[in-house]
């Protein structure tokens, strides 16, 4: 028990440091992009299109890489696979740490696009699989919520730091902290490799032809090893392995489609609508981050048992939809600040969804399952900028067919409503995973 608590504490520190490095640059990147591409203006279609294109390309890469990385972690361990994305994420930060001039921005843009195809989402995916290795399925929703709370805490501290740093200093700090995260992870985090001798857990994607004995038991010694690179057929088979998995995958797609649309729209919308700058973006993120951290660390663990992760998912999606509607109709600069209070419920969505997914597979397939869903969300991130970036640019320009600057945000609300309606079909999520030894689980 003490050993596992220590292992998870090192995982939390790793996630915190990595998240801090990623989040600290978020408030500054919009101003840096606008300054490099369209200096002296509050509206820049080129910046919106380039950001959307980058997001789409990254989505293509992650859609291909996430299932592979997840499967490799099942084979070779979570720590081994964490090293690659964490190391790659350092490179783009280091470029803008040198200078934020236009030429350096284009170098950052190129390197960020290439490295994020591997690193984007990988750390979270592998961290979830690491937790699933060490937490019983009855406690996973709370554990995933705590992990999300750690990320939100990193977001709060990073945003607070960004509030008082210049753009150049922000990227210097991000470079240092991301390097520190890699060093800490390599020194302190223990390797976690699923026990493949666990006969109680039968992997979904392994073929069992010719290995069923006369007494009905499965001889695991004769089971062929799942190939390293999962094919599309393997992924589809995994998604169809249970009705709850299929439904959760659909919810993940539409929720990520909306989230991707919000990423490529909201900051440019607020900048054009209310002339927000880096400091105001940081203030918004700081308020939302504090609320999210408190909710995920303290409120969500109390609600999981009496309410269930399925209902928490639906509640989070419904409130997220309302949040988008309010922002699309924002009539004053205080409205985006007021809607951040809804983050207390909105943050239930992702941990609940990941918990539902985790319960549908055995202990040796947590990496495959989380990687598969990350691939689905990445596919949504490919499509999101193709839809919402042109929509945002159109309705923020003088050529808009009618005056509604927040029309793209309203479309995001409609997407979230689709995800909410689909989430209602999941119901109570049965668990397909079984723990051979109860001593291998721990309470959060």
UniProtKB/TrEMBL annotation:
<keyword id="KW-1133">Transmembrane helix</keyword>
<feature type="transmembrane region" description="Helical">
    <location>
        <begin position="81"/>
        <end position="107"/>
    </location>
</feature>
<dbReference type="InterPro" id="IPR020846">
    <property type="entry name" value="MFS_dom"/>
</dbReference>
<protein>
    <recommendedName>
        <fullName>Major facilitator superfamily (MFS) profile domain-containing protein</fullName>
    </recommendedName>
</protein>
<feature type="transmembrane region" description="Helical">
    <location>
        <begin position="281"/>
        <end position="300"/>
    </location>
</feature>
<feature type="domain" description="Major facilitator superfamily (MFS) profile">
    <location>
        <begin position="7"/>
        <end position="426"/>
    </location>
</feature>
<keyword id="KW-0813">Transport</keyword>
<dbReference type="GO" id="GO:0016020">
    <property type="term" value="C:membrane"/>
</dbReference>
<keyword id="KW-0812">Transmembrane</keyword>
<feature type="transmembrane region" description="Helical">
    <location>
        <begin position="312"/>
        <end position="331"/>
    </location>
</feature>
<dbReference type="InterPro" id="IPR011701">
    <property type="entry name" value="MFS"/>
</dbReference>
<feature type="transmembrane region" description="Helical">
    <location>
        <begin position="7"/>
        <end position="26"/>
    </location>
</feature>
<dbReference type="GO" id="GO:0022857">
    <property type="term" value="F:transmembrane transporter activity"/>
</dbReference>
<feature type="transmembrane region" description="Helical">
    <location>
        <begin position="144"/>
        <end position="165"/>
    </location>
</feature>
<dbReference type="Pfam" id="PF07690">
    <property type="entry name" value="MFS_1"/>
</dbReference>
<feature type="transmembrane region" description="Helical">
    <location>
        <begin position="171"/>
        <end position="189"/>
    </location>
</feature>
<dbReference type="InterPro" id="IPR036259">
    <property type="entry name" value="MFS_trans_sf"/>
</dbReference>
<feature type="transmembrane region" description="Helical">
    <location>
        <begin position="248"/>
        <end position="269"/>
    </location>
</feature>
<feature type="transmembrane region" description="Helical">
    <location>
        <begin position="378"/>
        <end position="396"/>
    </location>
</feature>
<feature type="transmembrane region" description="Helical">
    <location>
        <begin position="402"/>
        <end position="421"/>
    </location>
</feature>
<keyword id="KW-0472">Membrane</keyword>
<feature type="transmembrane region" description="Helical">
    <location>
        <begin position="337"/>
        <end position="357"/>
    </location>
</feature>
């Amino acid at each position: 028990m003490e050993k596992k608590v220590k292992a998870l504490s090192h995982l939390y520190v790793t996630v915190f440091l990595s998240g801090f490095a990623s989040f600290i640059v978020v408030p500054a990147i919009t101003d840096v992009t606008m300054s490099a591409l369209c200096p002296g203006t509050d509206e820049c279609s080129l910046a919106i299109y380039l950001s959307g294109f980058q997001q789409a390309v990254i989505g293509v890469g992650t859609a291909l890489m996430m299932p592979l990385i997840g499967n490799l972690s099942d084979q070779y361990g979570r720590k081994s696979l964490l090293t690659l994305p964490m190391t790659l994420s350092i490179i783009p930060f280091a470029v803008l740490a040198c200078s934020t001039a236009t030429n350096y921005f284009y170098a950052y843009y190129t390197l960020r696009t290439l490295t994020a195809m591997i690193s984007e989402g990988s750390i979270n995916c592998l961290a979830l699989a690491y937790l699933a290795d060490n937490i019983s399925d009855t406690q996973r929703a709370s554990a995933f919520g705590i992990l999300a709370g750690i990320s939100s805490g990193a977001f709060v501290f990073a945003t607070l730091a960004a509030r008082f740093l210049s753009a150049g200093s922000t990227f210097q700090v991000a470079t240092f902290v991301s390097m520190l995260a890699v060093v800490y992870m390599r020194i302190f985090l223990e390797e976690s490799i699923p026990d493949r001798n666990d006969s109680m857990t039968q992997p979904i994607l392994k073929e069992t032809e010719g290995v069923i004995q006369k007494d009905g038991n499965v001889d695991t010694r004769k089971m062929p090893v799942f190939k390293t690179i999962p094919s599309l057929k393997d992924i589809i088979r995994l998604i169809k392995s249970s009705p709850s998995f299929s439904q959760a995958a659909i919810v993940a797609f539409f929720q990520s489609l909306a989230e991707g649309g919000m990423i490529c729209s909201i900051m440019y919308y607020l900048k054009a609508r209310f002339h927000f700058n880096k400091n105001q973006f940081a203030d918004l993120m700081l308020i939302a981050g504090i609320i999210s951290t408190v909710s995920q660390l303290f409120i969500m663990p109390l609600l999981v048992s009496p309410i269930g992760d399925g209902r928490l998912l639906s509640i989070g999606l419904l409130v997220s939809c309302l949040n988008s509607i309010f922002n699309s109709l924002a009539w004053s600069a205080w409205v985006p600040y007021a809607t951040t209070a809804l983050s207390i419920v909105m943050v239930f969505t992702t941990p609940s969804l990941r918990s539902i997914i985790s319960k549908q597979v055995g202990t040796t397939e947590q990496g495959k399952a989380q990687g598969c869903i990350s691939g689905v969300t990445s596919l949504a991130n490919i499509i999101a900028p193709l839809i919402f970036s042109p929509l945002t640019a159109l309705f923020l320009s003088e050529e808009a067919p009618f005056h509604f600057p927040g029309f793209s945000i309203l479309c995001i609300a409609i997407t979230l409503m689709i995800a909410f309606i689909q989430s209602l079909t999941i119901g109570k999520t049965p668990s397909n995973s079984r723990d051979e030894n109860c001593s291998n689980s721990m309470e959060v």
